Amino acid sequence: MDAPSQSLNNVADQETFTVLVTGANSGLGFAICCRLIDEFLFSRPQSQALHILYTTRDGKKSEDTRVRLNAHLQNTLREANGKTMGISLLLEKRVKFEGVLVDLAQLVTVKALAQQLLQRRQKLDAVVWNAGIGGWTGTNWPKAIWTLLTDIIQASTWPTYQNSEIGTLAKQKGLATTEEKTPPLGQVFTANVFGHYMLTHWLSPLLDSDSRIVWVGSITGLPNFFSLSDLQCLRAHDAYESSKRLTDLLVLTSDLPSTAPFTQTFLPTPPSTPKPKMYLTHPGILATSIASVFFLLEPFMVAFFYLARWLGSPWHTVTAYKAAVSACFCVLAPAPQLEELEKRDGKGKWGSAVSVAGDERVARTETEGWGFCGKAGEVPSGSMTAKAGRHRGMKETGREEREEFEVLGREVWREMEALRVGWEGRLGKVGQEASEDF
């Protein structure tokens, strides 16, 4: 019996690596799934199989995603077919995708998904919290045209010309309490952060110390967009940017002793047992439907993005596949490599970056108040320090700024845990009978 045939017979003995990816129907989420397939097949041993659980909001989108993922897999297999048909068949046997339904803005459906997965008792090796919405209503075109023509890198990386909704709520369906007695939940806040936050807590029995919780943040989450007194950004513009700054605060402070009283209840583990690690990524600047640009103007948006890259911006990944490199790195990088990097340099934001020629790579990204790695004044190797890659108004992170970031992070954790406990009381803990989902 030849080697490929023997390996095919042993496919049932493969160790399964399971990844849950939210918001996978299009854009970055779909590209993350595609890139995970490609990198897993050619970097992991044949004894391992990949199981991608991808989320969409309805069955039609789920089936559409499955068809397109399968088409991508077949393209990958055709490229590998230059070796032998046996190798191609072996690769195909190592990948499985499965769609599950959830609407991150509807907590009843978040609970239903958690219960569905808990019943399987299948370990989650990694989760990628990608799903989200922008909450934008349109574009101030005169301002957009002027700033893009006069300051293209800054304007296309940190835009100030998008019109945002204010105070839009995610009205919760299927609750026993009446709507008047239910505290408000911001739509962008819930879809981008709180839905994932609740799902992480409920799925904690399926996560162990080797599991990775990968949050997809953004380079646009500057500190001026976030206020602790308006955690959900219900009273101000820029709910999207606020939610991404909130993500920065949660993830970057998640391993600190000062936040431990809250992270321990969020991710309960037995004494002396390490919690799963949380990693923060961002995709750079890419052209996806989240920007809500009129379709006839999309080619112009893409052209400006490429021009910004050619002028020296390291963050204009433009295509979703290149933008997915940082999230996939945090999912698939060998544990010793990832742990050594964060132990040596410190915890930081892993960004998707590109060269002028478009060659993608993973780069540490500066976060105002935290720096590159939580150490004031230190810049790890491989970090993007070029002027073109830095917001012009960003303040240097000194000891005082670093301390303020940690204090704010602790207060954010306190507020989020209080919010979680309150909503878990309304929804019931996982394991209790769930309300009907959508």
Summed up:
The chain is α/β, with parallel strands linked by helices.
Description:
The protein has 2 domains: 101 residues, no CATH class; 326 residues, Rossmann fold (3-Layer(aba) Sandwich), CATH 3.40.50. It contains 15 helices and 10 strands. An 8-stranded mixed β-sheet has the order 3-2-1-4-7-8-9-10, sandwiched between helices. Strands 5-6 form a two-stranded antiparallel ribbon. Helix 2 links the parallel strand 1 and strand 2. Helix 2 crosses helix 13.
Which characteristics define this entry?
13% strand, alpha/beta, disordered C terminus, Rossmann fold, two-stranded antiparallel ribbon, 438 residues
Q: Which SSEs are present, and which pair or pack?
A:
Blueprint: H1 3-9, E1 15-21, H2 27-43, E2 48-56, H3 59-80, H4 85-93, E3 95-101, H5 107-120, E4 126-129, E5 136-139, H6 141-150, H7 152-157, E6 162-164, H8 187-202, E7 212-216, H9 239-252, H10 260-266, E8 277-282, H11 298-310, H12 320-323, H13 325-332, H14 335-345, E9 349-354, E10 360-365, H15 399-427
Parallel strand pairs: 1-2, 1-4, 2-3, 4-7, 7-8, 8-9
Antiparallel strand pairs: 5-6, 9-10
Helix pairs in contact: 1-4, 2-3, 2-13, 3-4, 5-8, 8-9, 9-15, 10-15
